[in-house]
Amino acid sequence: MAGVTALAAVVGLLGGGLGSYAVNQWSGDTSSVTSFDQPKPASNTGTAEPGSVQAVADKVLPSVVQIQARGFGGASSGTGSGIIISEDGYILTNNHVVSGAEGSGSLVARFNDGKTARLEVVGTAPWSDLAVVKADAQGLTPATLGNSEDVPVGSGVVAIGSPYGLSGTVTSGIISATDRPVRAGGESGSQSTVLNALQTDAAINPGNSGGPLVNMDGQVIGINSAIYSPGSGSPGGQAGSVGLGFAIPVDHAQRIGKQLIEDGSAERTTLGVTVDITGRTSGALVVEVPSGGPAAKAGIERGDVITKVDDRLINSGDELVAAVRSHAPGETVTLTVTDRQGGNERTVQATLAGTEM
Fold first, then answer.
1. What is the C-alpha separation between 60 and 213, in angstroms, rounded?
2. Domain encompassing residue 122
3. Alpha helix (H) residue ranges in the chain
4. Where are its TM segments located (predicted)?
């Protein structure tokens, strides 16, 4: 014990002596050359490699706007994002971004160069959580749209928007899954808002809504719409990102957006059935079949269970709704149908209809 104590004392003294020497030396010598004295380059010399997040951001940022919704009296009622789709001011966004300015409210776009402009609503599709607005502007940079039909799971993506009002924020991740049934705008209790979504782990927070999810070629493949919030137990909550974000596939958004520009409204694709949403069966249990609809014409009856749409497995009522809405009105799909016990399997053809909303 004595030897250990003595050794400890020597080490302590040496440490103290060295520390004192270092302080004295630093205090008395100012001739050292540090990094602070090195000349800095004239500018950042980093070059964006094709396919890098930086290259994607350089390409897409000019096509993304922040949207500020103001309610009655000019009070702020929320901030979201939007995607420029034409040089003369058409902008695609979420319905829940613009809904805060309904009535006597107003919408303002803040562009990437800092300029602002008032927005007018061209048309909305609340059931699909999409809206088109227009700014009185010219010479804008429209985004390049990609293809969401065959996006590979695991492929890289970049999300751009205004989370919590921080405009021009860029985050990156991958496509975690496709064909996720989620409720648009975070609504619950009604299948009127169910959409067929892309899932990503790129950080998406409140304020990213309406902004683009793009592939590594800088092409828009989705419109960010919802996040999963452990606090609320449903997509669309106000908690921060937990790596579960959802985007509306651009193929669907493009079809709806074109209708909104041309007509101010859009058709919702329908099979003509009401299904159980409790999840008590494996598949979509049909509880009502209105006469004259696509399902009735195809021979679907109350009590049938739909287990597939084409080759896509259906495990719930929401999955059936999402699968149907991934198609356009007029398309024909093959439905696999069983009874409640999973027997008497058969297939039928149904031509989907469109309901003006």
1. 10
2. 53-135
3. 2-28, 53-60, 95-98, 250-263, 294-298, 317-325
4. none
- Rg (the chain; Cα; Å): 28
Burial of 179 (0-12, 13-18, 19+ CB in 10 A): middle
How many C-beta neighbours within 10 Å does residue 352 have? 21
Whether 131 and 83 share a structural domain: yes
Strands 312-313, 284-288: pairing kind: unpaired
Whether residues 250 and 299 fall in one domain = no
Q: For residue 294, what are its two tokens? A: 């696509």
Confidence of residue 193 (pLDDT cuts 50, 70, 90): confident
Q: What pLDDT does residue 187 have?
A: 45
Q: What are phi and psi for residue 153, nearest 5 degrees?
A: -65, 130
Q: Give every CB contact of residue 151 below 8 A, 6+ residues apart in sequence.
A: 175, 178, 198, 215, 221, 249
Q: In 203-316, which ranges are continuous DSSP H helix?
A: 250-263, 294-298
Give yes or no: residues 247 and 296 share one domain: no
- Residue after which a domain boundary falls, among 263, 285, 316: 263
pLDDT at 9 over 80: no
Domain-ending residue, one of 135, 165, 187:
135
Catalytic machinery residues: 96, 129, 209
**Max Cα–Cα distance, the chain, nearest Å:** 99
pLDDT of residue 43: 66
Token pair of 46 as six digits: 């980093």
